[in-house]
Amino acid sequence: MSNTEGAPPQARGQLIYREDRSATRWPLVASSAAGWAALIGLGIAMNLPHLSGLGILAGVAGIWVLIMTFALYGSLPVGIRIDSAGIEIGGLRGRDRRRRRGTWPPRRLSVGSSTRAVFSCPWEGVRCLYLITDKAELKRVYQDERLAVKPYRGTRAPLGYLRVLFTKSALVITNDPHHASSEPADFRTNWAQLGRLRGMQSPTWLVPTRNPAALRAALAQCPWAPPVQGRLPPPATFVFRA
């Protein structure tokens, strides 16, 4: 993670702040590593005659490993970039690599892989910014998202909502969908527990951050950005379907 220092930029498009792997926190890495260690240890122990009953524990450890590994894999691409033109979140480093190889934009990503996509919005399309560090207020945003997708019975997911396990701080961005965009623009459906999971354009984005103080300072340097709110206004009901 790095952010530029000095006076506010004068040229549109000048980089102000960059935070790579903003969603990858040490509890997620540690949980995944511990799960793999436990699974390997149980696998070795099960070969001993008097410990063959550890199969149930190995199965539980296997489920835990799958959850943590997929969560870690999904968190790695996520980043934040702010410049004088607007804000971008998502798979920014992956986009840079693929641009150098000439393979960007990619073929359509699945909804379940949306953390690898890039979501962009110019400042004229950013309505409000909330930098949330309070656990109770994060839960309020999560609850609004759950209520928004509840009528769809688990078959819809808001695009740009990049929630990851063990998120401690997050930037919530409300945007005008007429200005916001994503790369790629279309996402493939994929199978979820309750059916086909489809993406829906969302006026509310969420991206984790590991350094909220630096992010807040960087946003204050940008004269085109709206003021950053530290707390949600009561009541705060976010919309997740354009």
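The record above closes out task 2.4. Task 2.5 opens with a second protein, given below.
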Amino acid sequence: MNVLVTGGCGYLGNTVVTRLQSEGHRVTVFDALLYGNPMNIDVIKGDVTENASLSKALDGQDVVIHLAAIVGEGGCNLSKDYTVRVNYLATRNLSATCQERKVRLIFPSTASVYGARPDSFLDENSPVSPTSVYAITKLAAEDAIKTNCRDYLIFRLGTLFGLSKRMRFDLVVNRFVAMGAIGEKITLFGGPQFRPFIHLDDVADIFVEMLDNEKTGVFNLGGDNYRISDVANLISSKLGSTVETFEELRDPRDYRVNSDLAEKTLNVKFRRTIEDSTEEIAKFSKMVNYRASIYSNEEWLRSIWSKS
């Protein structure tokens, strides 16, 4: 199939592109290259807010996997206006164009749209209550897609982890592993709060499997639910490191996600575990400075936007 991947050079994007190519699909990557081109592949360099450029990139496509976004609360707060334009307005325009051209749209939203719900096991019918600009713009984008487009899949993703050619160490599992791998204490803020975790390779597999699936709708892809403290202890025991806990600095996000609908309706599988991924992340962590700004969305965007 002909597949357009926006944001195809990002943390999840390059993994999706690699998986598509391995399956023999014809892939076009559209990316602003904010984080560079880690795969060194041909890319249409462009901003998704540039409607004409993005519309042209859609020519001849069967499916678009729309990953381009300002991702994470910290990065979004650096420029809320631009975040709205990228995460919401560009998605709204793209969804209308997909409908006009009969292009299937696969869109990653976030389980953060549910907000802080510590006592609930959240399915797709649970009330939403986004608390960050990132989650608010993703939920608005969901609504735009459902209004404008008939052939779509929206996936509310849990917190990603895993090794990528455009690595991120601002994600919980990746950062914990990096700390432990180089002999630092794993710093834990709070601990009892729940969070869903899913390996980016599982997400990439699912996206590719859904290219010609006839199902549509909104689905949770949460993976496995863990307490943050359990994640830290699991990784520390694997690496022989220690955990330092600051209970008074607890992250307010606390939720568990039910992915039964996707498992039963779409037959998706969550194959990779945190234990399985620790070794490969640890090996990479020892080769780089995990604190370098390029490995953090917020820090890297702050560094490049301050120069413009």
